Amino acid sequence: MATVQKRPARTRPPVGYVPPGWPLQVRPPGVEDWERTATAFLLDCCPADYRAYPVLRRHPAVLARFAAAHVEAQVSAAADGLGGLRRSLEDHVPPEVVQAAVEAWEEQSARLQRIRREVALVEEALRGRVFVQRLT
Question: What is the mean pLDDT of residues 27-39?
């Protein structure tokens, strides 16, 4: 008598896993109400007047694209601004103030980098990507 080999059942990835860098205020993809929290987060990443556009509130994937473009522009502006900050301030304020300004700008740049990653992850999830935890 021949034995029948069973194929391993396909399992869906566990609902609720999020990768490193996922925004804390957004519920994991697949759980109840996650898109509402994603929309709130994305709107917070955009200029306030974006809230006036129904298409952005009704279609989180569209909002995610707008948010990604806006945050990317901020990251770029921060990089450009930091490059000339010392020169633009050195004749107007003491060196310790220039240094404090540079540190504040660097802190802001790091914050924007984190937001860019968070927005990108949310956008990927809204487009259907399923995040799966890797075994180490």
Answer: 94
58: tokens are: 């009704």
Q: What is the pTM assigned to this prediction?
A: 0.82
Whats the size of the chain, residue-wise? 136
90, 105, 114, 132 from 108: Cα distances, Å: 20, 5, 10, 31
- C-beta of residue 106 within 8 angstroms of C-beta of residue 26: no
Query: HSE on the CB side for 58, CA within 13 Å?
Result: 4
Q: Calculate the CA dihedral of residues 32, 34, 36, 42 and round it to 10 degrees.
A: 180
**Residue 57, exposed/middle/buried by CB under 10 A (0-12, 13-18, 19+)?**
middle
Q: Which two tokens stand for residue 14?
A: 């566990």
